[in-house]
Structure of DUF305 domain-containing protein:
Amino acid sequence: MKKSLIQAALATAAATMVAAVAAGCSGGGDEGAHQQGDPAPRTSSIAQAQQESHNQADLTFVQGMIPHHEGAIEMADLAETRTDNPEILDLAERIRQAQGPEIEQMRGWLDAWGAAEMPGPGHDQEHGRHGQGHHEEMPGMGAEDMERLGNASGAEFDRLFLELMVEHHQGAVDMSRTVLSEGSSPEVKDLAQRIIDSQEAEIEDMRSLLKN
C-alpha cells in the first residue's frame, strides 16, 4: 500500500516537472517570436528617424536645387554643339559630372521623405508654362538668357555661357548658405558645403576666363 502511495507521489511530481518545463519552453517561444518581430519596429524607427532628420529648410533646398542643377546641365549640354573652346568644354563636362550624381542623391532623399519634385527644365510638355517659369525664377537662366545662349556660337557663346553660369553658380551658393544656417539634416548640409566649395572654385575659374 505504502509502495503504491510512493509511486503515485513520484508520478505526480514527474508530471509537475514536465508541465513546468513545457511552460518554460512556451514562454521562451513567445520571447523568441517577440525577438523575431523586433526588426519591424526597428525598421519603423529608422524610417521615422529619417523623416525627423530634416526640416522645411532642407526640403525647400532639395526641391529647389534639383531643377537648379538640371538648369546648369541644360546650359552645359549646349556647349557641345556651340563651341570648340577646350576650356569651356572641360568646364561643361565637370558641371555634368558633378551635378548629375547630386541630382540622383537629392531625388533619393525626396523619396525617403515622401516628398515630390518641383517641375524643372524638360517638364514643358506635361506642365506647359512651368518650363518657362522655371527659367524666369532661376539666376542666369531667364527665358531670354537661354534663348540668347542657344542662338550664340563661338566666342560669343563662350562669353555668354561664362557670364550666365557665374550668376547661376552664385545662386546655388546662396541657396546652400541658407540651408547651412537654417537646415537640420547633416546629409543635406554636407551636400550644401560641397556645392559651395566646388562652385565657388568654378566661379573663380570662369571669372579668370572672362578676363582673357
